[in-house]
Design goal:
By secondary structure, the protein is an alpha+beta fold. Helices cover 32% and strands 33% of the residues. It has a six-stranded antiparallel beta sheet. The chain has a three-stranded antiparallel beta sheet with strand order 1-2-3, covered by helices on one side.
């Protein structure tokens, strides 16, 4: 009324006589006389309580979702449709040996990838990239992540496309399983088997000599 300017889409809480309040979207349009002087206003209150509660539930659900992912011991990260990283948990930081840059780093949290034979694996050919391009999960593959300090971590990825309510691919989530322990155990088993074989041959040689 003072300025003669309209107010559109301002959210406010409207108190009720019983002490409760209603979340409303406020729209006000000034009314002028024939000479353009403000003489009043038309006020419209749109009840948005249900929508506000729905948004609050979505926010709470996302908060819960992030807490669950942060609590997982395995590296987990998500990307958008172009492969830009949109979320990662602390386990992903520990796995990669670095903190990825959201919205800039693509396809993988690690800066360098290698195939199991040690040859370079371009990020745009990684299982995560292929999952997004092919719109399907990728399973049963292994790769090696090289950290900034030069250490290498063998892993198996589980990239899976993320769909919106219409079934359209909007991104992907990847769960990365560190195989370092398994590889060490396998190497130890191989060493033990070789040692046992060597001892058995020695015993056999002694027996044969006797």
């Amino acid at each position: 009324l003072r300025t003669g300017m309209a107010v559109q889409g301002r959210e406010t809480a409207v108190p009720r006589a019983d002490g409760t309040s209603v979340a409303c979207m406020l729209h006000i349009d000034p009314v002028e006389d024939a000479e353009g002087r403000p003489i009043g206003a038309i006020v419209c209150f749109v009840n948005v309580s249900d929508r506000k509660r729905a948004v609050e539930k979505l926010v709470e659900r996302e908060r819960w979702f992030r807490q669950v992912l942060e609590a997982l011991p395995s590296a987990v990260y998500t990307t958008d449709l172009e492969g830009r990283i949109t979320f990662y948990n602390q386990a992903a930081v520990d796995f990669a040996g670095r903190r990825p840059v959201l919205g800039r780093d693509t396809w993988c949290v690690a800066t360098k990838l290698l195939r199991p034979d040690g040859t370079p694996l371009p990020h745009d050919q990684s299982p995560m990239a292929r999952s997004l391009k092919e719109h399907q999960p990728v399973r049963g593959e292994e790769a090696i992540a090289e950290r900034p300090d030069g250490t290498r971590v063998p892993f198996t990825p589980f990239p899976t496309p993320l769909l919106d309510h219409a079934g359209k691919v909007v991104g992907a989530v990847n769960i990365v399983i560190d195989l370092t322990g398994q590889k060490k155990s396998a190497a130890q088993m191989d060493m033990m088997a070789a040692e046992m074989d060597h001892r058995a041959k020695n015993v056999l040689a002694v027996v044969q000599a006797a």
